[in-house]
Each structure stands twice: as structure tokens, then as C-alpha cells.
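lol forgot to send this yesterday, sorry. C-alpha cells for the thing we talked abt
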């Protein structure tokens, strides 16, 4: 718990410095210049949240965690995302460059040996092993192997969450709020799992990430003084995915806690593809947009809604088996799909 508090204090303290830095250089998201339909803010705000999260997690980890090759790989990947995040804050990079940076970060951690060796079997007892087939080769005089299915699934899982979570940051306090909750539940799960390959304490890292996002939340909650930006959005999915993998491949649990952002993301991808558009270009069709435009919800209300639902789903996930989690995810997805389809039909 001490690591959570220290991370929170560091994040809370350095955020004003990042805000000052961005304002000094005029690195602001100005709605008068940025006319994208997805924009919900009305005043110029610095992004920069990714820099806050990276620094808070790194500084706290130096004091509380034992660095091994896994943790080094995790931070190498986070450096990639943070650098691209800052560049995106300043230059508004193409989503395809952001996608490539996410792929690189995913490959770094998977290449270090962080993979999903198995998942629970939803159709019966036991697990589904992903350690076959293997690609054997020699490197630096030693025989090495790549678990093909395990690596591919891990890369997909990490990249999926990076993008889906990043899309749910449209209003003040939304993303850092539910990400903090998700990290806390992963910390609980990691604390009960003792077979992680890493030498550092996975539960402590989850608490550190939770503290960093909680600190950012205080400055991002309405009225926001700083925005998460691509940096904090991608780092959220990145850290949550890696923590879930290291906690014993808690894929279903993670997806359940993130059920609403995930369902919103799936619907957005399908909607854009059916409309003949790129699934990677943003629009004003997300759940939080519909709650604002069609139901008049305020930004505080939407943020609290995401936090509350993530907490309820996370709490339920502690008591459900894999089948129960899958059913819960499907039920939440159906509700979100029905709501978004209703709003689309109502608009037309």
C-alpha cells in the first residue's frame, strides 16, 4: 500500500510541472483549432498525461521493485509509448504511427518472455495450452524458442487493450478513473498468484500504476487541467495487459473489468468498417459522446459512471469462474450494443 501512496503523491506533484512545461511551449489542445468531431472540451488544455504516468511509475518502481529482464523490458516498451505520446501531444501523429509504436512496445515485452502460455477453457475443466507450436533456433550460442501461439495472442491482447482503452478518454476524469479501479483489482489478483516468472512483486507494480493514474485523475477530473493524451491512454492498456499476463493470464478478468470500454470499442470498429471507414480514425460515435449528445449527461456523471461500473464488474469478477465472467462480458456488451444501436437508429 505504501507504493500506491508514494506513486500517487509523485503523480499528483509532478502534474503541475508538466502542465507548466506544456503551457510554456504552447503544446495545447485548442478546440478552436482542433475541429475534430470527437472533441468535447471547450478550452485549450495541455495533454501530457503520458509523461506524468511514465515518470510516476518509473520513479516509484526504482524505490520499491527489483529490476529484472522482465521489468526492464516493460519500461523499454513504456518509453516507446511515452515518446510517441509526447510527439502526438505536439504534432498530432497519424493513428498508424501510434499503432506501429504499440506493436513495437508489445513485441519488446513479449520478446523478453512475457507471454500467455495458457487460458482457462470456457467449454470444460482445465486450461487451453498455447505453448505449441514452437520455433526453435540458436542465438548467441544458445538454443532458444518462440512459442508462436502464446506470443501472437499476447501481442494481440496488449495491442487490443492499448487501443480500446485509449478510445475511452473523451471526457474529464474518464480514463484515469476506471484505470485506477482496474489496476487495484489486478493487484488483488496478483497478490494471490505466486508463480509469476518475474523477480519483482507484480502486485506492487499494479499498485504503483494505480497510484499514478489516481494522481492524474485529480488533475483530469472536471474541470480538467490536463488531458491524458495518447501517452496515458496507451500506457493504461499496456500496463493493464502486462500485469494481467504476469498475474496468471487473467484475460477474462481484465476484459470483464474493462467490459464497457471494450464493448464500446468493438461496436466502434464494426460501425466504422460497415460504413466503409478506417477503424482507427476517431469520430463522435463512442458511448461517452452519445451520453453527452443524446442524454445530456455531464462530464462528471460520465466519469463516475465508468468508475462505478468498473468497480462493480471488478468486484463480481473476484467471485465468478471463467464461464461466469464470459457470460457477464456478453451481457454488458449486449446492453452497450443495444444502447448504441438505439441511438444510431434514433438519429437516422
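and heres what i got for the seq, position by position
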Amino acid at each position: 500500500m505504501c507504493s500506491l501512496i508514494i506513486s500517487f503523491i509523485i503523480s499528483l506533484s509532478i502534474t503541475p510541472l508538466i502542465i507548466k512545461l506544456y503551457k510554456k511551449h504552447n503544446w495545447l489542445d485548442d478546440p478552436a483549432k482542433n475541429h475534430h468531431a470527437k472533441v468535447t472540451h471547450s478550452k485549450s488544455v495541455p495533454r501530457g498525461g503520458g509523461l506524468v504516468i511514465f515518470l510516476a511509475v518509473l520513479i516509484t518502481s526504482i524505490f520499491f521493485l527489483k529490476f529484472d529482464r522482465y521489468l526492464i523490458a516493460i519500461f523499454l516498451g513504456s518509453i516507446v509509448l511515452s515518446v510517441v505520446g509526447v510527439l502526438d501531444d505536439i504534432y498530432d501523429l497519424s493513428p498508424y504511427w501510434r499503432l506501429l509504436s504499440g506493436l513495437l512496445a508489445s513485441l519488446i515485452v513479449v520478446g523478453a518472455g512475457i507471454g500467455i502460455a495458457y487460458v482457462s477453457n470456457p467449454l470444460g475443466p482445465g486450461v487451453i495450452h498455447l505453448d505449441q507450436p514452437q520455433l526453435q533456433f540458436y542465438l548467441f550460442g544458445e538454443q532458444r524458442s518462440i512459442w508462436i501461439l502464446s506470443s501472437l495472442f499476447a501481442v494481440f491482447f496488449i495491442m487490443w487493450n492499448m487501443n480500446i482503452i485509449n478510445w475511452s478518454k473523451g471526457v474529464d476524469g474518464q480514463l484515469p478513473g476506471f484505470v485506477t479501479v482496474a489496476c487495484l483489482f489486478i493487484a488483488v489478483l496478483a497478490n494471490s498468484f505466486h508463480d509469476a516468472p518475474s523477480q519483482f512483486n507484480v502486485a506492487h507494480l499494479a499498485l504503483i500504476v494505480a497510484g499514478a493514474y489516481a494522481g492524474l485523475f485529480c488533475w483530469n477530473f472536471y474541470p480538467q487541467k490536463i488531458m491524458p493524451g495518447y501517452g496515458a491512454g496507451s500506457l493504461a492498456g499496456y500496463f493493464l495487459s502486462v500485469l494481467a499476463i504476469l498475474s496468471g493470464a487473467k484475460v477474462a478478468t481484465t476484459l470483464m473489468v474493462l467490459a464497457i470500454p471494450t464493448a464500446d470499442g468493438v461496436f466502434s470498429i464494426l460501425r466504422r468498417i460497415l460504413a466503409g471507414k478506417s477503424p482507427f480514425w476517431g469520430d463522435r460515435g463512442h458511448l461517452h459522446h452519445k451520453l453527452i449528445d443524446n442524454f445530456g449527461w455531464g462530464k462528471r456523471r460520465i466519469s463516475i459512471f465508468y468508475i462505478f461500473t468498473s468497480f462493480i464488474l471488478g468486484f463480481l469478477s473476484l467471485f465468478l469462474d471463467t464461464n461466469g465472467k464470459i457470460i457477464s462480458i456478453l451481457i454488458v456488451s449486449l446492453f452497450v450494443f443495444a444502447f448504441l444501436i438505439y441511438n444510431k437508429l434514433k438519429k437516422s
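Residues 2-249 form one domain. anyway ping me if u want another try
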